C-alpha cells in the first residue's frame, strides 16, 4: 500500500553498518511524510487495520496518531537541520576520496 502512495519507493530503514543510518532513515521518513498521511487515511489501510488482532490494531493506531502529529514532523525537521552538517563532515572523513585537511576544518567550522 505504501509503495502505491510513494510511486514505488520504500522508506529507507536503518542498518547496523552505517554511521548515518538513523539520519538517512529519518530523512527518508520525512521525505514521504505526506504520502504516509495519505496512506493512513486511505480506506484500504483502514480496512486492513480493522482485520488486525487487538495488539496490532493498538500499534497501528499509535502509528497513525504519530504520522498525523504536526509536532512530530517539526521535531524531525529540526533534528535533520541540526544534524545534517555533522553528517556531511562524517561523510567527508569516511569517504573513499581523501579530502584536504583544510576542507575538513572548513566543514567542521561550518558545522559548528
UniProtKB/TrEMBL annotation:
Full protein name: Uncharacterized protein
Species of the source: Colocasia esculenta
Lineage: Eukaryota, Viridiplantae, Streptophyta, Embryophyta, Tracheophyta
Amino acid at each position: 500500500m505504501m509503495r502505491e502512495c510513494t510511486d514505488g519507493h520504500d522508506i529507507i530503514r536503518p542498518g547496523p553498518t552505517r554511521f548515518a543510518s538513523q539520519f538517512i532513515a529519518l530523512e527518508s521518513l520525512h521525505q514521504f511524510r505526506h504520502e504516509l498521511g495519505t496512506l493512513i487515511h486511505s480506506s484500504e489501510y483502514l480496512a486492513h487495520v480493522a482485520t488486525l488482532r487487538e495488539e496490532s490494531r493498538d500499534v497501528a493506531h499509535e502509528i497513525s496518531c504519530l504520522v498525523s502529529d504536526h509536532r512530530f514532523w517539526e521535531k524531525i525537521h529540526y533534528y535533520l537541520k541540526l544534524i545534517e552538517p555533522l553528517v556531511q563532515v562524517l561523510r567527508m572523513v569516511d569517504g573513499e576520496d581523501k579530502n584536504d585537511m583544510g576542507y575538513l576544518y572548513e566543514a567542521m567550522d561550518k558545522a559548528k
